[in-house]
Amino acid sequence: MDRKYFIGVDIGGTNVRVVFATDSEFLLKIIRPTQKKGSETTLINQIIEMIELGLSTLQIQKEEVFGVGTSSAGPFVDRGTRIWTPNISGDGNDWKDVPYLIPLQEYFGLQCKYGLANDCVSSVKAEHLFGAGQGFSNLVYVTISTGIGGGIIVNGHLLEGKSKNAGHIGHLIVKKDGPLCGCGQHGCIESIASGKSILRRAKEQGIIVKDGTELTTKKVFDLYREGNPKAKTLIHETIEYLGIMFSDIISLTDPEIIIIGGSVFMNNKDILLPRIIAYISEHSFRQIAEGVKFVPSELKDFVGDLAGLSLIFPPSVIQRWQNLKPWKHKIRIIKN
Ligand SMILES: [Zn+2]
């Protein structure tokens, strides 16, 4: 039987997404909240259940699946066949690491191809193959979302590191004695400029919504747009710290292009992008920073899906997808 189907798994702190694809199109996406309680096999069982639902909905046999590529939330350590992801463990359970590849291999067999990577490392690969990074050999992908992360390609080579955590940009320290970060350090950029941190700082600074509803990160930016002075100060300060982070990234990696994604950035790029660029032009090592392009993610919501798939696509399928751009079309979604 021909192995002509591809499965991409995107394990996030909030949702697990499983996509089913052919060499030319997306067939289906299933989205469910990430289960965080139960035994150590809870996560992989949830993923296999979602895969089974997709296969039966599409009437595909598991022997027809070419490969399963997984992009997992970080910080992330690939322990052979197991994964350790503190952003998913915790919250009532004490998972230190969970089995991953062996249950998948038991389900699909050894003829199926498997890929597994930190979401930021696989996202830069997806942007390089299919998005704004096409044609560049030196690029950095940065996501500014609930957290902050990134991935780095230098001279066409994807940086992985000893535990596949190279490019953990969110934990660059930008402020001495700054806020406590989830990683245990103080003053990481994630503890200042992630969506979660912007909201926490706004609450600490007494920013409130006039109608009495609960403050959200989106509402902090809405208040900025309305000219609220406290929100303005907070967002300008946030941009300065992001500027320090980008300046450090440029000095360290000498990129041609920096691609920025993530919901906090994408929803507010009109505010953030020009100010980040202005900061860099004034505060960076000029000879290295000059000419570096800053662009929003082209793959938007599809970064995670393509991140998983990019780990298993053979070269011929990569080329076909580059030409056809299936992520530009509507995709069938099953939620919950
Ligand atoms: Zn940190």
Describe, in plain words, how this protein is organized in 3D:
- With 336 residues, the chain is of the alpha/beta class.
- It folds into two domains: 5-121 and 300-335, ATPase, nucleotide binding domain (Nucleotidyltransferase, domain 5), CATH 3.30.420.40; 132-296, 2-Layer Sandwich (Nucleotidyltransferase, domain 5), CATH 3.30.420.
- 38% of the residues lie in helices and 21% in strands.
- It has helices at residues 42-58, 101-108, 119-130, 190-193, 195-204, 217-225, 229-253, 263-267, 269-283, 286-289, 303-310, 315-324; strands spanning 5-11, 15-21, 26-33, 65-72, 77-79, 82-84, 98-99, 113-118, 139-144, 148-154, 157-158, 257-261, 293-296, 333-335.
- The strands form three sheets. Strands 8-4-1-2-3-14 form a six-stranded mixed sheet, with helices on both faces. A five-stranded mixed sheet has the order 11-10-9-12-13, sandwiched between helices. Strands 5-6-7 form a three-stranded antiparallel sheet.
- A hairpin with a 3-residue loop joins strand 1 (5-11) and strand 2 (15-21).
- Helix 3 packs across helix 11, helix 6 crosses helix 7 and helix 7 (229-253) packs across helix 9 (269-283).
- The radius of gyration is 20 Å and the shape is globular.
- The two termini are 31 Å apart.
- Bound molecules: zinc ion.
- Residues 171, 181, 183, 185, 188, 190 line the site of zinc ion.
